[in-house]
Specification:
Layout (H helix, E strand, L loop, with lengths): L41 H5 L1 E2 L44 E3 L9 E6 L9 E5 L7 E6 L5 E6 L2 E5 L8 E6 L4 E6 L12 E6 L6 E6 L6 E8 L2 E9 L15 E3 L5 E6 L7 E6 L2 E6 L12 E6 L6 E5 L2 E5 L6 E4 L5 E5 L5 E7 L5 E7 L7 E2 L5 E6 L4 E6 L12 E4 L5 E3 L2 E8 L2 E2 L3
Length: about 425
């Protein structure tokens, strides 16, 4: 049964993946994922007051002493939902060597190559951050939809011409479990049915499809072994759209699998955010009938890796929500992008615009509380944590010499910074990110 979620009274009224390799700067030496290390910027020079950019009108509430949390691990289950045949013309182009620990922090990234012809997309294992290891390699252009955990990914088979076909791939064994989304309309083009994610337990598929009864809506589907359930219907005119710099992930599960969010992003005036427990919607941030006023839409949502806590932007504030409570303002006056949280849940980084419009990166100590602090030398964007100490980001292009704008690794332990050999990050785990 289709359920339309009412607008939440307490609230005023699609993304890409890439590969990852990281670097740890120890005792002034560059780790394998960095190039020649720059001199440490030092805490005084590298970290300045967040008042230089959009500053919260009040500091985040200091976090209480954290209770012990379980370390996320890879599932031992076998994915069996919506089984389908392997596309006839599909060729596996994944190769893996060595083992991958069930709780190893990993990232899928694209490594740099001087000749720009041999750049590779790889899965990097950061069990030892000082010596990250390439565990798997992928052919360039491989459509990686999701990194479920350290040992499972979702790939898209539509390049083979097979409609709505995907596979969960076990790593490092490289075993494919093909599945195909149902087609509620039977005649609609395949882009109207899209996988959002597979649950950490490999026992649910979260997907979106146009309402087969007509109308300009997206139905949010959850498929389990018991069948398919529509848990929400969200406004979407299904017009042509080329994407926006304000887009982020369409959705994600918490690491426990107990909760998920869907952020449907047809146009900013119609963006909708829902959070679901099991198959019951608990949070609804949907547009009023006239659509969101300019800039008021929900965007850039991210789960904590260690709790059932959702952070998201709405309007010019960052909000925080946990099941069983109302949303609360977490960072008033901060319009963030690219929020990312360390695997241990201890630090949160994000980009926000300074008064002159330059995007800068900020860091919050979630474990001990405190105000956001600008890190690096300013003019940094697109941050994503590779592990609990290393933050990858890009300098803002301010000139025409591309060699000056290569990505960097920032070490939150000592404030040092070094050029990175990673050109592009696709996705990370168990670190979380709104975009990666």
């Amino acid at each position: 049964m289709t359920v339309r979620i009412p607008e939440l009274r307490a609230i005023a009224h699609r993304p890409s993946l890439a590969l990852l390799a990281a670097a740890l700067v120890v005792a002034g030496c560059a780790a394998p994922d960095t190039q020649q290390s720059q001199a440490p910027s030092g805490s005084a020079a590298a970290i300045s007051s967040a008042s230089a950019a959009p500053t919260p009108t009040s500091s985040p509430t200091p976090a209480p002493t954290a209770s012990p949390v379980s370390v996320p691990t890879s599932s031992t289950a076998t994915f069996t939902l919506l089984p389908a045949k392997q596309p006839a013309d599909f060729v596996s182009q994944i190769s893996c060597t060595g083992s991958i620990g069930v709780s190893d922090p990993v990232a899928i990234v694209q490594l740099h190559a001087a000749d720009r012809t041999s750049r590779g997309v790889v899965l990097r294992d950061y069990a030892d951050p000082a010596t990250p290891r390439t565990a798997c390699t992928f052919a360039e252009g491989y459509q990686i939809v999701q990194l479920i955990d350290a040992r499972h990914i979702v790939v898209d088979g539509r390049g083979t011409g097979s409609r709505n076909t995907y596979a969960v791939v076990d790593l490092p064994e490289v075993r494919f479990h093909w599945f195909q989304l149902p087609d509620p309309n039977h005649t609609e083009p395949h882009w109207l049915a899209t996988v959002v994610g597979v649950s950490p337990g490999l026992d649910q598929v979260l997907w979106l499809a146009a309402d087969p009864a007509g109308g300009e809506t997206d139905n949010v589907h959850i498929t389990t072994s018991a069948g398919d359930q529509v848990v929400a219907s969200l406004p979407n005119p299904h017009g042509g759209r080329c994407g926006s710099g304000d887009d982020s992930k369409q959705g994600a599960y918490t690491h426990s699998g107990a909760h998920l969010f869907v952020l449907d992003q047809p146009y900013s005036s119609l963006n909708s955010l829902v959070a679901v427990e099991g198959q019951t919607p608990l949070l609804s941030v949907v547009p009023p009938s006239a659509g969101w006023p300019q800039g008021a839409h929900p965007a850039m949502a991210v789960w904590s890796p260690t709790s059932e806590t959702l952070y998201y932007r709405r309007g010019t504030d960052v909000w925080k929500w946990t099941p069983g409570s109302d949303p609360e303002r977490y960072l008033p006056g901060v319009s963030w992008s690219y929020p990312t949280i360390t695997p241990d849940g201890g630090h949160l980084a994000y980009t926000a615009a300074s008064p002159d419009g330059t995007p800068d990166t900020y860091l919050i100590d979630l474990a001990h509380g405190g105000s956001p602090q600008m890190i690096g030398k300013g003019a940094r964007t697109s941050p994503v944590f590779l592990n609990s100490t290393q933050l990858w980001f890009k300098p803002v292009d301010t000139g025409c010499i591309s060699s000056l704008h290569q990505p960097l690794i920032y070490n939150i332990a000592d404030g040092s910074e070094a050029p990175s050999i990673i050109d592009r990050v696709i996705t990370v785990w168990p670190a979380t990110s709104s975009n990666y």
